[in-house]
Amino acid sequence: MKRATPLAIVTAAGFAFLYAPILSLVIYSFNDSRLVTVWGGFSTRWYGALLNDRQILDAAWISLQVGVAAATLATVIGTLAAYALTRHGRFRGRTLLGGIVTAPLVMPEVIVGLSLLLLFVALEDLAGWPAGRGFTTLVIAHATFGAAFAAVVIQARIGSLDRAIEEAAQDLGARPLRVFVDVTLPGLAPALVSAWLLAFTLSLDDVVIASFVSGPGASTLPMVIFSKVRLGVSPEVNALATLVILVVSLAIGLAAWATARRG
Amino acid sequence: MPEDAPFVRLEGLTKRFGGFTAVEAVDLEIRRGELFCLLGGSGCGKSTLLRMLAGFETPSAGRILIEGRDIGAVPPHARDTNMMFQSYALFPHMSVERNVGYGLRRAGLPRRETAARVAEMLDLVQMSHLARRRPDSLSGGQRQRVALARALARRPKLLLLDEPLGALDRKLREETQLELVKIQQGLGITFVVVTHDQEEAMILGDRLGIMREGRIVQVGTPHEIYEYPRSRFVADFIGTVNLLDGTIAEDAATHARIACPEAGIDIVVDHAVTGARGAAVAVALRPEKIAISRDPLPHDNRVAGRVADIVYNGNLSVFHVTLDTGRRLRVARANAVRAEDAPLAPGDRVHLGWSGSASVVVAP
Amino acid sequence: MRRLVALVPLAWLGLFFLVPFAVLLKISLSEPAIAQPPFLPLTDWAEGVLTITLNLGNYVFLGQDPLYLLSYLSSVRIAAVSTLITLLIGYPMAYAIARARPARRTLLLMLVILPFWTSFLLRVYAWIGILKGNGIVNNFLLWIGAIDAPLVLIQTDFAVYLGIVYTYLPFMILPLYATLSRLDASLLEAAADLGARPLTTFATVTLPMSWPGIVAGSMLVFIPAVGEYVIPALLGGPDTLMIGSVLWNEFFLNRDWPVASAVAIVMVLVLALPIALLRRAQGRDGDAAP
User: Fold this and answer.
1) What is the DSSP letter of B283?
2) Most trustworthy range by pLDDT among A241-250, B258-267, C189-198
3) Interface present between B and C (3 or more CB pairs within 8 Å)
């Protein structure tokens, strides 16, 4: 047994700090008591309650739809931005694009949410679109900040791709679009998947921006959870959290397994 | 088109990146079927020149003519040139045979013909047994062969090779050099090879172009470049050389005398020089062309000095000799026997001599 | 075709990120009104004459009511202290990960990133159960007899600090790890070889070379923390003043859009310097963002 260094102790404590709350969520999701943190015996009743909660189920369905649409849009926009920034050399608007593509990453959510809402209101006033707030405005808002994250992920990947591989395809007679499809896209595939998942997760997690740009009848899952937990702890939310953690762990495990198998 | 007309012709070819001129007003002719080496240090513009030939860089000025046709406006995918990349740039997600067949599929060759050509190419580079492998499971030498086969598959008029052997270790490199020359001669395709390795350029090239700071400073066969460098830079860049500064003392039709205070003598060379009497020049003298002995020598040019240092290189020994004038010369001698009876040692007094045909006068 | 590749993201981000700021600025200069939307237009066409009324009243109002100034100061203080604590916890962790053996390094990195993929909201929520009156911490302390009555942990500034540190720790670790892992081990050996003790090596080589990571990580925590809304809303008390909550309340409770916009514009100005610092650090350090 190696002697534990102070560094190892601090690191272990740091990881305990990161994971203890998550663990507590899981454990108390199986608690029979409504008081959440007072143990009343093992039970799965809150999972049953969760599956019968129409409000949560409807919100989850909306969130999934918004997430898929926003992540897909974000990945497309992010890919185009990353490609233009890394492969087009100097062009007019490059500095502007480089600036605004990362700006949403560092802007507090309340500002992004408020300013987007004001834009939607102004647009509706001027052009009659988007009519009211709801699904469309949610997708636009989430795609916008999702695109920023996607662009960063994809840009890093394009930067590490050997440019000569694209030139080789071109040299062997492939036109630009063909080069992109044959060589660039396969090279980018892992980054595209990460970017999509990241944008999807961010969309599924956002409560602040969604609160601003959403309208009646389009409450996302985080909005419903937020209104529930503001009133105090709720065992159903613990059950939901456990399911989320389970899905994420499975997905990450699967991704790690796929990478290990390919590598 | 006449047989001896240049196959590739560069006219005033220039490439600027912002304020930096990478290639400056290069005029060059490359003959059909030859293996031409562009040789120079890093940043001399040789790769940029090659990339302009491939179409990856657009010239800032000047023209590129292949068989008399200006190809400046032709995009890379439509050029009859192919390139072998320094990193090989094999498509990592395609098998060896798909890599080699990629250019043929882009050309719309029928499937059967593509398969036949791929097989032929893989056979040429002795890679048939690994046709279904992915590039990441190949060794460096195998990747190099696949890259060559892929670049040759479209039967380009001109093959451009960017440091084709740069990533191989020394032993493999020597074997591959000869093989590359054999393939080039067998196919009769014109090759332009970029390299920073002068030894490799000498072995591969039918002719060499020496580049420096964006310009081609001398073009010639390896023999011409080595024995008749026109400038101090070329003499110094190719092989090792003693450069002695002097002034023209006598210039006749068949010989010249260069007053050389550094050596303490007037050096006689057996060729005429260009320049007025008293003009500053340099004499380039290769170490292996100087004889060294304890006894006085009969050569046209004779100096004496003391051995300062001896470097044993296996096949030859290099003597650093301090002349009586204080100047040091390097002298190389083949180690013809395993051990001499009375080998020279540091501190020994020695005589050096070389003939009029041994040295060459270059621009200062 | 080529043009389109750059044009699409430019147009999208221009319309949905830049233009909103212009609208925000415009509305911050409008007069509040009981209307739909609740403000008066800036421009007015009257008998063919365009009148533009710029109203600085909202900004004057921000300066007069001490609530706003105190909220900005309190937000900056809470964000700065949390950032410092995050740095103190995150640095040793990033250092340990960067120095770990490759196989373990991948695992540890994944453990840092994993919480990021689970819901932020749910992770903040978990602290309610831990900190509340009959929560895990109090139950435990009562059980071992360390206290007689439950401590007030939730709805305090302490809980807000804890929530911010907890939530943003991965944002600190990742850029720090990025710079520390690129630190060539032979540099440390060279320092030791030249006579530096481990602590001196750390102070003279490691720390200066990881500076871009420290700046990037700190700003990635500080900037969102200043505007944080969810954490103070769930963990903070009635006395916790944070500007994100003020903006939220102006908008959702008071329906005063112009004042909310003015609050946002001032917040952007407050954050301009940290954002510039972050950009500089990331420019110097390549890609330090997670």
Assistant:
1) E
2) B258-267
3) no
Domain range for B42: 8-233
B150 close to B122: Cβ distance less than 8 angstroms = no
| ipTM of predicted assembly, 2 dp | 0.88
Subunits that touch chain A (at least 3 Cβ pairs < 8 angstroms)?
A: B, C
pTM to 2 decimals?
0.82
Compute the average pLDDT of residues C84-113.
Answer: 91
Question: Of B233, B248, B275, which closes a domain?
Answer: B233
Q: Which of B209, B233, B257 is the last residue of a domain?
A: B233
Domain range holding A207? 61-232
A7 domain residue, yes or no: no
Rg (C-alpha) for chain B, rounded Å, is: 25
Residues in chain B: 364
pLDDT band for position C290 (cuts 50, 70, 90): very low
| Contacts with A183 from chain B: Cβ below 8 Å | 91
- Look at the block and give the residue holding tokens 């695109």: A147
- Measure the CA–CA gap between B258 and B279, rounded to whole angstroms: 10
Question: Per the CB < 8 Å rule, is A173 touching B90?
Answer: no
Q: Which residues of chain A have a Cβ shorter than 8 Å from any chain B Cβ?
A: 162, 164-165, 167-175, 178, 182-183, 186-187
In angstroms, the CA A73 to CA A105 distance is 17
Residue B225 has pLDDT above 70, yes or no: yes
Give yes or no for a contact between B276 and B262, defined as CB atoms under 8 angstroms apart: no
Does A44 lie in the same domain as A132? no
Express each pLDDT in C171-182 by its tens digit: 999 999 999 998
- A20 and A119 assigned to the same domain: no
**Arithmetic mean of pLDDT over chain A:** 88
- The residue with tokens 């260009």 is B274
Residue B348, pLDDT > 60, answer yes
Domains and CATH numbers, chain C: 1-55 (no CATH), 58-284 (1.10.3720.10)
- The total number of structural domains in chain A stands at 2
> Which residues of A8-130 form beta strands (DSSP E)?
none
Cβ–Cβ of B77/A170 closer than 8 Å?
A: yes
DSSP string spanning A96-143? HHHHHHHGGGGS-HHHHHHHHHHHHHHHHHHH--S-SSSHHHHHHHHH
Structure tokens at A55: 């409000």
Query: Are A80 and A164 part of one and the same domain?
Result: yes
Question: Region A199-211: what's the mean pLDDT?
Answer: 93
Quick check: is A242 in a domain? yes
Percent of chain C with pLDDT over 70: 91
B112 and B163 housed in the same domain: yes
Same domain, B311 and B192: no
Among the partner-chain residues B85, B106, B107, the one whose CB lies closest to the CB of A164 is: B85
Give the closest of A107, A110, A241 to C229, CB-based: A110
- Residues in chain C, total: 290
The stretch C118-144 carries a mean pLDDT of 87
Higher-confidence position of B259 and A87: B259
B135 near A CB under 8 A: no
Please compute the mean of the pLDDT values over residues C181-206 and round it to a whole number. 84
